[in-house]
Every structure is written in structure tokens, then in C-alpha cells.
Amino acid sequence: MKKQLKEFGELLETKYKGYDINGHRGVAEGRYDGFACTPEREPVSGVNPNLKDLALPFKEFCKKNNVELVQDVWIGPFTAFGYGYFDEIPAGYVIKYLDFQTTMNFVKVNLWTWENGTQYIWECLNNKLKNPARLNSHIEKVERKDGKVYVTVNGKVEEYDKIIVTAPLYIPNKRADGQVGMVDYFDTRDDEMALFKKIDYERYDVQAVLTKPEDHPEISYYVFDNMIPERLGHLMVYYRRWKETVDQVITTYALRKHRNSNEIPYEKVRQQVQDDLKTMGNPASEVINEWSVYYFPHVFSADYADGWYDKVEAMQGKYDTYYAGEIMAFGDMDETAEYSRELVERFF
Fold first, then answer.
1. Buried b (16+ CB within 10 A) or exposed e, 206-234
2. What one-character-per-residue DSSP string does 159-198 give?
3. How many CB atoms lie within 10 A of CB 166?
4. 28, 307 Cβ separation under 8 angstroms
5. Which among 74, 86, 174, 203 could disulfide-bond with 257, CB atoms 3.0 to 4.6 Å apart, if both were Cys?
6. Beta strands in 200-269, from DSSP E residues, in sequence order
7. How confident is the model at residue 314 (pLDDT cuts 50, 70, 90)?
8. CATH 1.10.10.10 given to domain 202-296
9. Counting beta carbons within 10 angstroms of the beta carbon of residue 304, is it exposed (0 to 12), middle (13 to 18) or buried (19 or more)?
10. What is the CA radius of gyration of the chain?
11. Sheet holding 156-160, edge to edge
């Protein structure tokens, strides 16, 4: 394992130079273009045909480079965190989120959390904005015509010059919470629909449970045996945030969709996870919250390799519309915020 880890780190820095640039622009064409992962964020660009390999499912990518063992290191903070399985998700998503340095920090448990949570960060940021976010706004319709954008929000029509979409672009199934994609309330054009209907997302379910003090887990746990498609719908990780007290919730996480299988019903997975907790010796005494959100939108390998990202990037500004959000980078706060910053610097 150590030998392959070292080899993988060297491969990423040499053979796959440019792999860690934010976003996916140019990857399918064998090039990179963006900003360095440094505090200075200096612009970087270059040509590297090997980057085309990032379209391969991560399992195939590792096999191609004779470093298959490293999947055992990357799987915890990837699959257990709800980002899918290595036989279906392109390597570009895996190693742009879990670049070598980030993954080694997981291995060394060199981790920290926000004292007041990430929501608090955005609340503080919002308080300093000249035009703060308008919460609880229901966008009913968006029309783009005559060089203007008309947004019907909370029953009123507002006029703008441009619009940046960070909401989901496409949701392939009818969700119980009623959430829909951009294509359902915009005056969607044919080229937008043709690209966006290729997007899928993860069905990632979370339960917040209480246990009796004697049943409380000593630490957080990965359940590695459940991080394979054959164990779809089972508990993959449960999280105990504070070690000092047992008076806290435990959060559980499970996937219930693989591209090669039918989606498992929510209630079945809900019960399956609770059964797994009993098996682990940490039965839940009560479920106090639960949710299944729209999570990690992505495209699969064939569309990634076919230049899906470059085709969407070529549409930036067309119809006075710009596309950002998770799908254009990755489903975490860091990558999404960086992409949004870069988008504004490129076009505004």
C-alpha cells in the first residue's frame, strides 16, 4: 500500500499535471485552465493529453496506472460521504475533490471543523453584502428575451440583464420534496436540455438518531464492507461529533442508487440503516430528523469524455445566462465557491 500511495502521488504531480485545477474545463481535450491551488491563486494553463484519463471511472483509472490499492484509502471520504462508487464515477471528480494533499490529511486525521458550523459562515458573509440574499423566495418562471431576463419570484416579475444559475439544472426523477431543475421553470432551449438531461445525482440519505447512553458509539465509524455496490442501501458511516459527551445525536449515511441498479425506496433504506445500527451494537432509540437531499450532481464517463463540460462552458453567456453551482465543479463548499469566484472573474 505505501509503495502504491507514493507512486500515485508522483503520478498525479507528473503524468497528470494540472489535475487539481478547479473545475473540469478542458480536461476532455487534454488541457487545464484555471487558478493554482495556492493562496496567491496565480493563473495557470497548459496542455497535458494524459488528463483525458480523468474521464475513466476511478476504478479503471487506478487499474490503468497499477495503483489499485489506493482505492482503499480514497473510498472512505468519497463513497461514504455520498459521492458514489468507484466503478461509476469519473476519476476527475474523485481526485479534484480528494487531491493527494487533502487525502493525506484524512489519513493523518489532520482535520478540523468550524466551531459554529458552515451555515454560520454564510450568515456572516450575507450580513456584509451590499445586496444580501433574499431568503424564502419562490422562483416560478424565468424568461429570456430581447436581451433581458424576466424572473417571476413570489408572484412578481423582475427584470435583469443577466442571470447566474447555481440551482440544480436538471433532476431526472420526481422527488418527494417537490424540488425541480432549472429546465422545469426556465424557457429552456434545445441545446440546454440536450446537455442538462445527461446529469444524474446521488440519492444520499441521512438520519439523526438518539441512542441510550450505554449504546452510544465510542467514536465515529466507517463501515468499509458496506461501501460497495453489492451493499447498496446499507449504513456506510455514522458520525459522533463531540467525544466529551454522549448527550448528542448520531448521524447516519447511506446511498440507495447505483447507475446499474434500480433506486431502492427511501423507507426500505431507512429501516435497513436502523437494522445495521443494531448489528453494530448502537441501536437507535429515536430518529429526531431525517432527509434525502439533491446531492452531488454529475455526469458519467462517456459524457465526461465527450466534452460535456467544454460544451456547457461554450454556452456561458449565451441567452444572457451563466451556469455555476455544484455540477460545474464538485459537490462541496470549497470547489463550488472557487468556481463561482472564477466565473465572475472571467465574465463580469
1. bbbbbbeeebebeeebebeebbbbebbbb
2. EES-EEE-S-S--SS--TT----GGGTB---HHHHHHHTT
3. 17
4. yes
5. 203
6. 200-210, 221-222, 237-239, 250-255
7. very high
8. no
9. buried
10. 21
11. 139-145, 148-153, 156-160
Q: What is the pLDDT of residues 6-46, one digit of tens each?
A: 999 999 999 999 999 999 999 999 999 998 878 888 899 99
Q: What is the pLDDT of residues 99-136, one digit of tens each?
A: 999 999 999 888 888 888 889 999 999 999 999 999 99
Q: 295 forms bridges with which residues in the sheet?
A: 202
Q: Are 139 and 153 in contact (CB under 8 A)?
A: yes
**Cα dihedral value 336, 293, 76, 263, nearest 10:** -130
The position carrying cell 467544454 is 310
Whole-angstrom distance, CA of residue 188 vs CA of residue 183? 5
pLDDT above 90 coverage of the chain, percent: 88
Cell 480514497 appears where? 74
Length of the chain: 348
- Judge if 2-107 and 202-296 fold alike in CATH terms: no
Amino acid 109: pLDDT: 87
Specify the pLDDT at position 231.
97
State residue 36's pLDDT score.
81
CATH of domain 2-107: 1.10.405.20
Identify whether the C-beta of residue 252 lies closer than 8 Å to the C-beta of residue 235: yes
Residue whose cell numbers read 447505483: 258
pLDDT single digits (tens) 180-217: 999 999 999 999 999 999 999 999 999 999 999 999 99
When the candidates are 3.90.1150.10, 3.50.50.60, 3.30.530.20, 3.40.250.10, the CATH number that belongs to 126-199+299-347 is 3.50.50.60
CA dihedral 239, 205, 309, 326 (to 10 degrees): -60
Listed in sequence order, the residues at least 6 apart from 165 whose beta carbon sits closer than 8 Å to its beta carbon are 182, 186, 321, 322, 323, 324, 325
Query: Is a pLDDT exceeding 90 seen at residue 242?
Result: no
Domain ranges (residues) in the chain: 2-107, 126-199+299-347, 202-296
Cell digits of residue 86: 468507484
**pTM (2 decimals)?**
0.95
